[in-house]
Design goal:
Layout lengths: L13 E4 L8 E4 L5 E2 L4 E10 L2 E7 L8 E2 L2 E3 L6 H13 L3 E12 L4 E10 L10 E7 L12 H16 L5 E4 L11
Parallel strand pairs: 4-9, 8-11
Antiparallel strand pairs: 1-2, 2-3, 4-5, 4-7, 5-6, 5-10, 8-9
Length: about 190
């Protein structure tokens, strides 16, 4: 649970407690009684396709600066999932995509995020780095920098994509990304 200290409505102090008729801890204002609900963030992105290649970007911002990813980011208010995926792709690569098809939805509950990834057609071979990316490049399956991927969800998306492409079918599926816990080294 994110730690909030003050109410956004009245500025009063918050307490973490289970409100009446609820079953979860919430931030509750001790002055006005407002319950501050915190919900998962929606992340949207694309697998921009160009012939037998996909477009990846080398992150120019934290987290995971200097590692590769598919273009994706947080959905904004007042936009659809597809609009957000197109916007994020453009913001990170200056590429324009169309023909978006829902491909994968991943629940990442340990960071309170839900990822919606689309397959998309790259409209033209026009792309370039932006303030958010150090490099933007098309990759074949054999060129993907697997050891330099920024996020497990993007690695999983690409693995599914290449498996599905080999089969010639791209079913929509829902999955979970579970936190990888490093074992404690022996003493």
């Amino acid at each position: 649970m994110n730690s909030m200290k003050f109410c956004t409505a009245c500025g009063g102090p918050l307490a973490i407690k289970v409100p009446a008729d609820e079953n979860r801890l919430r931030h509750c204002c001790q002055t006005c009684g407002l319950i501050h609900y915190q919900n998962p963030k929606m992340v949207v992105g694309c697998i921009p396709e160009w012939q037998d290649r996909v477009l990846l970007c080398l992150r120019g911002i934290e987290p995971r600066k200097g590692l590769w990813t598919l273009p994706a980011g947080f959905l904004e208010n007042n936009e659809t999932l597809a609009q957000g995926a197109c916007r994020e792709t453009f913001e990170e690569t200056r590429a324009q995509v169309d023909n978006l098809r829902p491909y994968r939805l991943f629940n990442i509950s340990h960071v309170s995020q839900v990822y919606m990834m689309f397959r998309a057609r790259l409209k033209a071979k026009n792309f370039e780095p932006t303030a958010e990316s150090l490099q933007v490049r098309l990759f074949t399956k054999d060129e993907i920098p697997w050891e330099e991927m920024a996020f497990p969800v993007m690695e999983e998306t690409l693995k599914h994509y290449f498996q599905d492409r080999a089969q010639g079918t791209f079913p929509f599926q829902i999955g979970d990304i579970v936190r990888r816990i490093n074992p404690t080294p022996p003493a």
